[in-house]
Amino acid sequence: MSAVGTPTLASIHRYPLKSARGERLAESSVEPWGLEGDRRWMVVDPDGLAVTAREVHPLLLLRPEITAAGLRIEAPGCDPLEVATPDPARQVPVRLWRSELTAAHAGEADAWLNRVLGRPVRLVHLDDPTRRPVSAEYAAPDDRVSLADGYPLLVTTRASLDALNDQVLERSGGAHDPLPMERFRPNVVVDGVGAWAEDDWRRVRIGGVDFRAVKGCARCVITTLDPDTAEGGKEPIASLARIRRWDGATWFGTNLVPDLPDGRPVTIREGDEVEVLEAVEPGAGPIRPVR
């Protein structure tokens, strides 16, 4: 179990290709739109609509790695793909939820991805993240985000995962294995705070970066997929529905927007101190839409 003590940055995670496997980093630069290299690549269908692991579960099994030339992707049973960062002039229209923007098409990857995923898709790269604003409902007009679902970073805490796993084990009578944090695809994981403390945060400092906590994270079917097999189940949604259900959704983690006064990246590292600069009284649950 996680102990309450000095809040620290326990781990950092980046996801180079949206919906694919992530990688743990000892340190990372924080840019205005998220961690350096986080979710700058995305798979889309022939019409430019984002393809995610919600509907194409095998995406979770792809293992991307950022290289000097672009991106390397490994898939079970296949030769790896090496793809160069595409020319920014090769823009195509793409849509991710309510965001409509353009991204550069890496056409040489399409045939490989078609075989691996079993459907016609294209690979695109977001060369300029300033094209995509964050939802104005929760953020400032000049906030930007890469190809994450909605916000630059997601923070979770070890204590909250421990509390959830207590419920998972209780519900299963001890038969279910504890869920790993990978299910929730966070960017930063904090240790040394109590369970669900992140619900109450409004401003937090990690290392040398100040963040606004702008919205709780409503969880989807991806969390029910085993990250090692892409096979589905009922957890954690079943247990979250017992203890973390508000407004018809289940919640785990909090979305963050970095405040970088001059826009220059700042590096954070595992073990950095985490300081809560502003918080509300506990008990209200995650930040969520006003009804």
What would you note in describing this structure?
It is a single chain. By secondary structure, the protein is mainly beta. The chain is about 10% helix and about 35% strand. It folds into 2 domains: about 10-35 and about 135-280, PK beta-barrel domain-like (M1 Pyruvate Kinase, Domain 3), CATH 2.40.33.20; about 40-130, no CATH class. Strand 7 and strand 8 form a beta hairpin.
Number of helices: 3
User: Strand tally, please?
Assistant: 19
Classified in CATH, the superfamily of the largest domain is PK beta-barrel domain-like
Order of helices and strands: EEEEEEEEEEHEEHEEEHEEEE
Low-confidence stretches are: none
Structural class by SSE content: mainly beta
Sheet with the most strands?
9 strands, mixed
Overall average pLDDT: 95
Strand content: 25-35%
Quickly name the level 1 CATH class of the largest domain: Mainly Beta
Structural shape: globular
Terminal Cα span = 36 Å
**What share of the residues lie within helices?**
10-25%
For this structure, the quaternary state is: single chain
Radius of gyration: 19 Å
Reported CATH architecture of the largest domain: Beta Barrel
Question: How many domains make up the 3D coordinates?
Answer: 2
CATH topology of the largest domain: M1 Pyruvate Kinase, Domain 3
